[in-house]
Amino acid sequence: MLSLFGKALRKNRAAQEPAEQPALAPIAPEGPFAVIGDVHGCGTLMLDLLSQIDALSSDLPVVFVGDLIDRGPQSASVLAAIHAEATVEGARVFSVLGNHESMFLAFIDDPARHGSAWLSHGGLQMIESLGLRGLTMTGGAPAMVALRDQVRDAIDPAVIDWLRDLPLWWQSGNVVAVHAGADPRLPLEEQSEQDLIWGNRHWPDQARGDGLWIVHGHTIRPECEIIRDRICIDTGAYATGVLSAAVFGLDERPRFLSAYSRK
């Protein structure tokens, strides 16, 4: 019994003593680019932020960290606009997969199982932005299947195919854009989709040690912040009226930009 207590005490002491963190590598992208946080259907803020980015340089690649849709009133038009820009020849607009795109695709594939969860996490605003009315949450599986069919009729199939093909990360030099974070103990190639789009429990407390900088959204912060080798740019556009971005490669450190609601 004493040995068990000794193990517990040693474990608790180790947890209280922060591990030595590896030295951080300089931020070194292959070239300048911008990363935009979770848009969540806030199209007006997105256009404002894109104008700010264009004012810095009209040919900067722009990467979205996912969660393009849900929660915000312009979800459908945001999705259509980003898809259009991302699929032209020579596109300089990119996106990674967010958990809301993943939930939307789960609804499309199995509405009876996943419909209620998606709708209660912002999907309702996506439905409304498509101009669909008369939604009921009490019709069970048949109602969800019927709703899915209406959604598929209202969205270009090419957009859904594009969402299915979204990558889990986008990389330039040692800067990696993901939606929610990454397990700091594993290389990118060994990350699970769950960790990249929902986050990882080791994420807040441990640096990577491989020289990569991770820029991400998903976790709402009052302002963009740098913590060790991660950069959070989700300022909660749908809730706060503030959409933010980080621009890399113009300065030694990322340059943060924000667009504000004019309410």
Please describe the structure with a list of short key phrases separated by commas or semicolons.
5-stranded mixed β-sheet, disordered N terminus, alpha/beta, 16% strand
Task: Report on this structure.
This protein has helices at 2-16, 43-56, 75-86, 99-109, 111-129, 140-154, 157-164, 193-198, 237-240; strands at 33-36, 62-64, 93-95, 169-172, 175-178, 213-216, 225-227, 230-232, 242-248, 255-260. By secondary structure, it is of the alpha/beta class. A hairpin with a 2-residue loop joins strand 7 and strand 8. The longest helix has 19 residues, at 111-129. The chain is globular and about 55 Å long. 40% of the residues are buried. Mean pLDDT is 90; it is low at 1-18.
Summarize the structure.
With 263 residues, the chain is of the alpha/beta class. Helix content is 40%, strand content 16%.
How does the helix and strand content classify structurally?
alpha/beta
Order of helices and strands: HEHEHEHHHHEEHEEEHEE
State the low-pLDDT regions, or none: 1-18
Our estimate of the beta-strand percent is 15-25%
Q: CATH first level: which class?
A: Alpha Beta
Bulk shape: globular
CATH topology-level name: Purple Acid Phosphatase, chain A, domain 2
User: Number of DSSP helices?
Assistant: 9
